[in-house]
Amino acid sequence: MPELPEVEVIARGLNATLPGRTVVSVDHVDLTRLSEPAETLLPKVTGRKIRRVYRRAKVLLVEMNDDLTLVFHLKMTGRVVHGPRREPEKHDRIFLRLDDDSLLSFADVRKFGFVKGMTADELKAWSFLAKCGPEPLETSPEVLADRLRRRKSAVKGVLLNQSVVVGVGNIYADESLFRAGIHPETRADMVSQKRAVFLFSELQAVLKQAIAENGSSIRDYVNADGDAGAFQNNFNVYGKVNEQCAQCQTTLKSVKVSGRTSTFCPKCQTKR
DNA sequence: CCAAGCACCTGACGGC
DNA sequence: TGCCGTCAGGTGCTTG
């Protein structure tokens, strides 16, 4: 579900309320396929104090005292919400009960997501993060353009490739390609340096705007307070196949690129 | 090394 | 109503 803006909004929200809180107990609601075994996770977390919450790529990291970081990946439908105590519901996976009687919950309809406890050394050695490329908001468009243009496959697929640049998923790939006027099937190495730089400056703009609007809620995404985002109201192409382009009224089309549906304007987005 | 395709899982929606 | 196919914000594994 969440791409960079959504995970960033969740991390900022949690970082505003969680630091200083201590985990009083952990309810193992349902860890099926979701985590390291409860018998190793639960003792590690109980009694720890939360220091800070941050994001790297699409991963949410809750740093605690005594060399433990809780690592969440939300994949398509994961939710991490901090709120009042409540009863477990159908898709809840794990409950962390905090010392102010609040609740940090992880829910996940499709069960693709996970949570693990890692030491700093384990985090550093974690292959997922080791393979990740640079952060798009902390890297110049020129550097990102150079990385993209070394690839021969479709530009859409390259944007989704987390070893090239992290944090971009199907929504923000389609939206940034539209804003840059680039057809999703264009070979990455055939995009001029100038256009590739423009693509990443548009990507940065769209990511920042999405963060400012609390992320995009299609189905499942909510922020750390359980509230939906608003950036879906600003989509130009994502999920809008057969609608009219807001710029030129041409009917938007969709194609499969790298196995993902890609919606684009056949007039505004060109291959060169 | 790279790229494509399927797998993981549940739910929502459209067609018949 | 219900059954069936298709699709969904991500990533990992296998294959070529």
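qc> Chain A is about 30% helix and 20% strand.
qc> done
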